[in-house]
Recover the amino acids of this structure.
């Protein structure tokens, strides 16, 4: 992508539309009965995967900016973060609705008895304050430093979300391992840039 | 094609139009396969099959769904993988060797196996451990009639099922997801139970490869993974066989694996299931609804401990 030719607002509009494509895909799939024998499972899992994808894209923005000098990753970082929350919310709704049909007792049992549900639910709860404080007013109200501290929680969300995925699969953990690998790269890139900064100061 | 003729009314004929349409397509498709020379003699044996008192009259899961949503990890772990890759499976010639604690170990060819007993249509519920279920019209015969061929010794207490291992046709086994060959097991009385069948077909035709061609086990009151596909060896033992899933995750998959809504999988509940093709979930039944037939096998057993 060449951000020099796209104005920030155009870039944001482009990313906004592109980010709705996965949702559109599942809506279209349901409408045309194109999602195979178990469409609800496909949608539930697909929305979970896209939550992870957006979470990792969000986490990639800062290292990308650091190592390439590009500015566009920072322009779309907030939007990617909000889409993470958006897909996480849809994923949660599919679970509450189509998996449990709002049987709150069963949902409660699930949260306390089943680690992968616990991890998923914790991820969503931790994403709420991040999404709620994503606007400029919240940054001003909290002050840059505290806002930054709060938003470091996104790393924890990344770990919990991939853990949620890993604990969910039956025997073949090759796909979760790919997510662990990407997460490890992104987190270590972040760590490395911090060390570089520290050394530069020292 | 004589297989299209149905001499008498079967419960499976009371099916939605859509199911028929699928079936017709499939029959045409498989007729092509037969002309191509695949299992012509076996085909001659398969017809609609004798109706069975064990059949359920619940609506059938469509042939399309039965043959496109499968767990057959030898061909990949995604549900659509077996339908895509299992066409390479070599099903002819096929032999099943029956050995272990028996008087007369034997290796039987598929043609001989199909002569042992008349094929019956058994419309069974199938409940997967993952929480979904289907209703499938199998064509098969009681496993007992196969096991009687070898005269088991008195010391035989269990039966182990070993399934096909074809490294060149099975892309999934190159990855160490499970310990191959896929192995399952039953207690002898479970294996001899009249509900337990070896299936050679479904929907009035030979088994599609992705469903475990040419011969598979079907144990309808246990989770689906107990019903091993493409069986090549049956071994009588005096000790409980260690099955593939028990090796993979002993805390999650027990030897018995009877369908039981009260005993959850450690990572998910087994109280409900989604019947493929339905929107709402339904309550899972003890022994998958076959309690009247099989509960007496387990009167001595703590089902929570022996999950």
């Amino acid at each position: 992508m060449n951000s020099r030719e796209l104005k920030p607002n155009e870039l944001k509009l482009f990313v906004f539309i592109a980010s709705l494509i996965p949702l559109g895909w599942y809506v279209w799939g349901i409408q045309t009965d194109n999602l195979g024998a178990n469409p609800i499972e496909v949608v539930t899992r697909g929305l979970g995967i896209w939550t992870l994808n957006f979470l990792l894209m969000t986490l990639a923005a800062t290292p990308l900016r650091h190592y390439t000098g590009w500015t566009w990753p920072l322009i779309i970082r907030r939007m990617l973060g909000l889409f993470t929350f958006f897909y996480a919310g849809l994923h949660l709704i599919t679970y509450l609705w189509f998996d449990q049909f709002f049987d709150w007792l069963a949902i409660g049992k699930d949260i306390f008895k089943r680690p992968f549900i616990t991890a998923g639910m914790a991820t969503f709860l931790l994403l709420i304050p991040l999404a709620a404080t994503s606007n400029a007013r919240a940054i001003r109200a909290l002050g840059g430093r505290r806002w930054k501290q709060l938003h470091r929680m996104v790393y924890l969300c990344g770990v919990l979300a991939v853990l949620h995925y890993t604990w969910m699969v039956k025997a073949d953990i090759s796909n979760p391992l790919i997510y662990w690998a990407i997460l490890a790269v992104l987190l270590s890139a972040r760590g490395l840039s911090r060390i570089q900064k520290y050394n530069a100061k020292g | 094609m004589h297989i299209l003729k149905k001499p008498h009314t079967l419960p499976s004929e009371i099916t939605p139009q859509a199911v028929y349409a699928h079936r017709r397509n499939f029959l045409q498709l498989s007729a092509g396969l037969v002309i191509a020379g695949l299992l012509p003699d076996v085909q001659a044996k398969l017809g609609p099959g004798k109706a069975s008192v064990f059949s359920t009259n619940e609506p059938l899961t469509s042939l399309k769904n039965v043959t496109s949503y499968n767990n057959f990890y030898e061909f990949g772990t995604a549900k659509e993988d077996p339908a895509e890759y299992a066409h390479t499976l070599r099903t002819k010639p096929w032999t099943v060797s029956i050995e272990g604690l028996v008087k007369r170990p034997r290796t039987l060819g598929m043609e001989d196996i199909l002569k042992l007993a008349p094929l019956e249509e058994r419309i069974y519920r199938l409940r997967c451990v993952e929480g979904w279920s289907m209703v499938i019209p199998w064509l098969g015969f009681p496993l007992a009639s196969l096991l009687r061929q070898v005269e088991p010794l008195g010391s035989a207490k269990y039966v182990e099922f070993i399934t096909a291992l074809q490294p060149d046709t099975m892309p999934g086994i190159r990855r160490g997801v499970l310990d191959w060959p896929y192995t399952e097991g039953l207690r002898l009385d479970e294996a001899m139970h009249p509900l337990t069948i070896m299936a050679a077909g479904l929907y009035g035709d030979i088994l599609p490869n992705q469903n475990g061609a040419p011969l598979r086990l079907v144990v309808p009151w246990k989770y689906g993974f107990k019903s091993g596909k493409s069986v090549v060896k049956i071994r009588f033992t005096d000790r409980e066989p260690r099955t593939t899933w028990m090796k993979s995750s002993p805390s999650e998959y027990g030897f018995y694996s009877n369908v039981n809504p009260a005993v959850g999988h450690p990572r998910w509940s087994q109280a409900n299931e989604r019947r493929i093709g339905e929107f709402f979930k339904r309550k899972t039944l003890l022994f998958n609804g076959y309690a009247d037939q099989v509960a007496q096998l387990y009167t001595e057993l703590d089902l929570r401990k022996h999950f």
Summary: Residues 8-201 of chain A form one domain.
